[in-house]
Amino acid sequence: MAHEHDSGSTPVEGAQYDFAAIQSKWLPIWDELKPFATADPDDKRPRKYVLDMFPYPSGDLHMGHAEAYALGDVIARYWRQQGFNVLHPIGWDAFGLPAEGAAIKRNLDPRDWTYDNIAQQKASMRRYAPSFDWDRVIQTCDPDYYRWNQWLFLKLYEKGLAYRKASQVNWCPFDQTVLANEQVVNGRCERCDNLVTKKKLTQWYFRITDYADRLLDDLKQLEGAWPSKVLSMQRNWIGRSTGADVQFAIEGRDEAVTVYTTRPDTLYGVTFMVVAPDSDLAAELVEGARPEVRERFDEYLAAVRGTTEMDRLSTEREKTGVFLERHAINPLTGERIPIWAADYVLSDYGHGAIMAVPAHDQRDLDFARAFDLPVRVVVDTNQPVTGVIPVIPVDPETGEPTMPEDAPLENPSETGVALTGEGRLINSGPFDGLSKSNAIRRVTEALQGSGLGETAKNFRLRDWLISRQRYWGTPIPIIHCEKCGEVPVPESELPVLLPPAEGLDLKPKGTSPLGAAEDWVNVSCPTCGGPAKRDADTMDTFVDSSWYFLRFLSPKDDTQAFDPREAEKWAPVDQYVGGVTHAILHLLYSRFITKVLFDMGSISFTEPFTALLNQGMVLMEGSAMSKSRGNIVKLSEQLDEHGVDAVRLTMAFAGPPEDDIDWADVSPSGSAKFLARAWRVAHDVTSAPDVVWKNGDSALRRVTHRFLADAPGLIEAFKFNVVVARLMELVNATRKAIDTGAGPADAAVREAAEVTAMALNLFAPYTAEDMWEILGYEASVALAQWRKADPTLLIEESVTAVVQVDGKVRDRVEVSPKISGDELEVLARASEAVVRSVGDREIVNVIVRAPRLVNIATRPKG
Ligand code: ANZ
Ligand code: ZN
User: Motif 'HIGH' region: residue span (predicted)?
Assistant: First the structure.
């Protein structure tokens, strides 16, 4: 691969590092070379799939993108240098509300707005030069992508995993749209600040709750390879809870009410029941009540509808509620307890009704204190329970065991603090004395025996609401027929194309704009041929991104969503890189769809992303960049001023990838200076590429090979900043060797410069490529294989330790400069010369000054 190197020429005098010239020189060459194409089926190298989360095309690339793609690219380029065939694709997550909103504001077709943005981002991305395989680009708003969303929907529909149901959703009457829980702030719409109400709407859902157990249990596979913070966020979001369903008979009602509890052991402490005011049960229970009660309840219900789930669950809020003047019967004690409606009980968790145990549940206690309801302690939390045998104190005088006086059990109704800890049951009839955990089991068994209860499990996770009443998304491939009901669009008729935006009013109004596209929406039923209408909703864009990593494997295949053989080769993703903002939903949805595809037999793995790296954010002067703060740093300006390489290197050098980078604290101009320095080193090398390494200056070679040996481990541990620091050391050492040491013709100088170019490829590809050429090689340095460190050069230099016996030098030993005193003493005593000169005298003292000196003092024996 080496060019003829003109070793006779003098180095270019004062050559200037001109990043702009270097960028415009290499970009077209790389375009031609396609060094990162992964299409060759005969490629025998082992494979790695490195994936960066794909961008949303809202405006040009920003500093956050610059960080993410710089860091992801270190990993992709690294594995290539380690001999892997690396798949590193990119695409655009192109459907969704922001594009639609921006287009409406500008009176544009969301299509035009989106594709223009993609074009702009793509141009910026190419210049930024991550090592992407540009032949695999996907854009989720292309019909040949979203038709496979529709295919996926139909598969889920077939399996009963996609369904439609009516439920209460957050509704902004002003914006006329459904809101996610996250978009409701203090009961008001995040965008317009109007009070949010609840509305019963029929929506499409994916039955992700069927997979709740697996989504939780399979997190074990990811331990150590995903940030533990993300794992626990996933766990909490799924929120598995185990306990029991318990039946309470209701006076004046035939059917019992089931409540879910995690603490069946506290059944003897139940003093009232609470139902969610917005549940069907509450409405039914209040029906026969006195008019005053009904009135009070209706008022209360109206207030509750304007309250967010977060507020309802808050322990800070004062408790509110209405007594329904109805009673329930405790299944174990037969006791009659009052039934209240209160908003701290949610209608869509468990059964929307609870048994209240104020002594042992803080929210119940707050409620009981607010409404003067009884509090009964049934678990003595002062009694030890765990397997440890309590140590019985002994009276120091008599030696007799003493029984400690029982610490008085604090009364929750006085302290206001519920007793939630471990303990033993009291006031609980036949269950007295049992530990909490035993009692949970025994009480549940007792209920089960009499048909009044059973073990139960609940999840915080809800089914995934995937329908949106908006234009810019994947049409849902369902046709509604008056006679046949829901009829799936036959697979052969996919894609259901999104109709043109022209003529449609895209403004949010609560129903999908697609409903007004007469020609599009009116169809004949695929089953009976009668008049029917297309479903006018579009899919949540999280559907698009839930499987995109598979589409990259056969992006142009128009016969299937992805090629299972390619998936067998490449998937799952070996390393996923992206922001922690996606720690929950995107990852959860991708994990869910992966499991569905596994169950369908399409893929052989159950987790999509084997390892995950979350990069931090780029801040400016301590805070996130935002228009309102006016602290936005424009990426394009940074690139113009410092060059692509300097910006990329700065991202890698700033600190551990997971940490935020404050752009005010870093120095892209410093990075540019370093790059110029490295680049000039290549210029100064005067030896030919075939120079014999081993003849080079050994001190510099040691620095080079130490770097070669250490960098891979550091990269794999994501310590990119340390590698950059070490690279700076290497460049400094090379500079010194050129200017004041071995000189520019020394083999070690060339070796160091070549290694610098290879390593810089990870962080600063343009500079690296240019150095590589200057050093006499053909592009691309990105394909040059990482050199193995020479082990003989890794042995540290030795120093000479002098060994004296009674003040006379008897031996000299070569030792490591880092040798410990003990080790050196052992070596000294083992020296033959020392043994001889000590003879049969007795050693009385040994003074060790590692690593230089050992002095042994002796005296005659006896
Ligand atoms: C009695 C009890 C006694 C409870 C006690 C807790 C402690 P997790 O862990 O989140 O599943 N609960 C049940 N359904 C509810 C609903 N729809 N809205 C609000 N709270 C509800 O919590 C389950 C516990 O939360 C259940 O156990 C129930 O209160 C309450 F010392 O029952 B427990
Ligand atoms: Zn029909």
Answer: 55-65
